[in-house]
Amino acid sequence: MDTFSGKFTDNQQEKEIAILKIVTEQFKKDGGHNGVTMNSFDHILKLNIEDRNEFLFRMQKEKKY
């Protein structure tokens, strides 16, 4: 069983959509050359650093990009 299961259920899909919107908008501005830091999502996720990283790594693992 995945360590992520059930941990981030509250508005998870809404948070993922908001994160992808930030990434997409930044890509339109710079073509992906400057990127978006993990700190760009803190106001959406409102998690401690370890949980934030786990959430974002899970999105990457599930190929939600």
Structural overview:
It contains 3 helices and no strands. Residues about 1-5 have low confidence and may be disordered. Helices cover about 55% and strands about 0% of the residues. It has helices spanning about 10-30, 40-45, 50-60. The protein is mostly helical and about 60 residues long.
Give the tags.
disordered N terminus; 0% strand; mainly alpha; globular; single chain; 3 helices; 65 residues
Helices and strands in order:
Layout: H1 12-30, H2 42-45, H3 49-61
The share of residues in extended strands comes to: under 5%
Q: What kind of sheet is the major sheet?
A: none
In total, the number of strands is 0
Helical amount among residues, as a percent range?
55-70%
Which residue ranges are poorly predicted, with pLDDT under 50 across at least 5 consecutive positions?
1-5
Helix and strand sequence: HHH
Radius of gyration: 12 Å
Shape: globular
Straight-line N-to-C gap:
23 Å
Could you report the average pLDDT, rounded to the nearest whole number?
81
Structural class: mainly alpha
Put simply, the count of helices is: 3
Summary, kept brief:
The chain is an all-alpha fold.
